Amino acid sequence: MERDEAERGDGAGAAVGRFVERFALDLVAAGVPRMAARAFAGLLVAPGARRTAAEIAALLRVSPAAVSGAVRYLVQVGLVVRERDPGERRDHYRVRDDLWYETIMQRDHMLSGWERTLEAGVDAVGAGTEAGRRLDETRRFFEFLREEMPALMDKWRARRAED
Question: Is the full-model pTM beyond 0.85?
Fold first, then answer.
């Protein structure tokens, strides 16, 4: 395994380790399971944003079994991809290119589903009720996000192209 900054015994390695744990805590606060958050942060700091499960386990000082469930979750939610090099037996996990853009854009389908469900909720409780108004406000918010997201993502692409 290539020794990178996160695995060195010097101050830089300790600083990277602190970052991994700090960012993992931020992700946990946003609802990501703890071990998946740690594994994801460990991938972000990896050379090429890519590691094997064994490398992630060594970095985080946890069992390979703990990493197995974490990377399975990360693949399932689309934050990482699993790859295998020709002739190798071990899988590598890699942070997707343009990760946040792709993740946000994939939420369009989810948001439109929420809108339909909320609309059914409004019908169920009655549009003129307090609950109906609250559900419709939520539906309209998600509708707004879905409508505005493409323009916002275009702005992001333009800014990224400037770099």
Answer: no
